[in-house]
Amino acid sequence: MAPEHDSPPAYRPLSGGAVTALVLALLLAIPAMIGVWWLEAIPVLIVLLSWSGFSSGRRRGKVLALVAGGIAVTVGGFAYAGSRAIAAEIERQFDRLMTALEQGDRKELAEWVVEGPDRDAIVDRCLSSYAGLRGTFGAYASRTKLQPSPWGPFHGAMATPKGIVDAVDAARPVPEPWHAVWFEAGFSKARVFVAGLLFADGADVKEHDLDASMAGMKTGGHIRFRDLRFYVEKAD
Description:
The model has no long low-confidence stretch (mean pLDDT about 85).
């Protein structure tokens, strides 16, 4: 009589969800670290949806799925913290700008203006616009903040707000998209959107103009503008 042998274990295919989650956790680390931190929730969701296959024994790859989930949660957490830290630093810098406008600090304001022969004229124009704004909406009353954006703080700073009108000259058009850096500032009587123009009115985007605006950042400072504009929400 032939000896009995244990039958081989039933074949269990490797979970496609576990493999997909691991690949996505690694690939999405790059956009997550530049501000789109919530993308790392996708591989976590895939792991959760695939979990029944591991618990029932129908699929292999449980360890792979745990690794994928761990990477996604870790990267996503660090990316979120980094995004908030970047936003807080940008807001702190813009608070300095608004404080300089409120106090009439020409020296500080000059550091925010692109270097050139018309620097003093731009500072004068910004102070004049701010004086008119202050007469209507009161004093600068609170810290600045970036517009919330699911695409990260840099997109929030560059995206043009919707439904706004120039608070100083209602007939003046809103800057074209990506032509200005935006933030919100709280005044005693209203919320104001502030735009720092990167290019002169009607000018084409030129690389050397952008380089001039970014010159301060290369030395650890902040972006520089060619003008400041102030906007409020359109009345209903």
